[in-house]
Design a protein that fits this description.
263 residues, alpha+beta, 6-stranded antiparallel beta sheet, 5-stranded antiparallel beta sheet, 27% strand, PP2C
Length: 263
């Protein structure tokens, strides 16, 4: 059983909301997307990506098959559930790219995606871009996603951006859905545990609320109250960007073990 709640808000300085979220408790699927692009392009990219992922996951669960079509080659390092998510994200990438190619006013659009999928005794977290996924387990919050930004990837190589470039390039995305023909999601897999809490959000929240604050709010509140409190906190700190948060609390039989990898 799960208890979930999600909120998305335009913030205080944007004219439209380019974030999108999806909660399907029956399917065990939770998605947050943060679109980018001029005019309405970011909004289109985020909504199209979320809709495509949802449709593909529904189809694959109904068919009890990990994939069909051009993405049917399984990644042996991933579980069946993670391969289903991978297939859906790759389909979303094709859909956003094709839509941009068909509409000149949408060219250059793209979106982040953060996905959590619960299937049987597997919890899959997958992401492209910098919309984070957190897991609260045993009172400790950890990030399951990998931020695909210039700063993060340089840090992984042991390099530090010069101060003069940090503000301009530090948060620049190195991966996004719909901007290139090939996209590589990162994956994290584990067995779900009783009272695990998952948080998916856009950088409008993650960029203004510290991790210890996220942890404290999730420890004290239900998913609904946690989302409401986090939104209020982000707005109180300026609401510079669109703000989206989605919280899921699990009630499952406990098992152990962790797996992680990339597509």
């Amino acid at each position: 059983m799960v208890e979930s709640h999600g909120i998305t808000d335009v913030g205080l300085h944007r004219s439209r909301n380019e974030d999108c979220l999806l909660m399907d408790d029956g399917l065990g699927l939770y998605v947050v997307a943060d679109g980018m692009g001029g005019h309405q392009a970011g909004e289109v990219a985020a909504q199209l990506a979320v809709r495509t992922i949802h449709q593909h996951m529904l189809h694959m669960q109904a068919a009890e098959s990990a994939a069909s079509g051009p993405d049917s080659q399984r990644d042996p390092s991933l579980s069946v559930a993670a391969n289903e998510v991978r297939t859906a994200i790759l389909a979303a990438n094709r859909a956003v790219l094709a839509r941009a190619q068909d509409s000149p006013e949408l060219q250059g659009m793209g979106t982040t995606v953060a996905v959590v999928y619960l299937r049987g005794n597997v919890l899959v977290a997958a992401n492209v871009g910098d919309s984070p996924i957190y897991l609260l387990r045993g009172g400790v919050l950890r990030e399951l996603s990998v931020a695909h930004t210039v700063a993060t990837e340089q840090a992984a190589l042991g390099r530090r951006l010069p101060e003069s470039l940090r503000e301009k390039l530090g948060h620049m995305l190195t991966r996004a859905v719909g901007t290139r023909e090939v996209v590589t999601p990162d994956f994290f897999e584990t067995f779900p545990r009783h009272n695990d809490v998952l948080l998916l959000c856009s950088d409008g929240l993650a960029g203004t609320v510290r991790r210890e604050e996220l942890q404290n709010v999730l420890l004290r509140h239900t998913p609904r109250r946690a989302c409401e409190a986090l939104l209020a906190l982000a707005l109180a700190r300026g609401g510079e960007d669109n703000i989206t948060c989605l919280a899921v609390r699990l009630q499952v039989q406990e098992r152990g073990g962790i797996r992680s990898g990339a597509a």
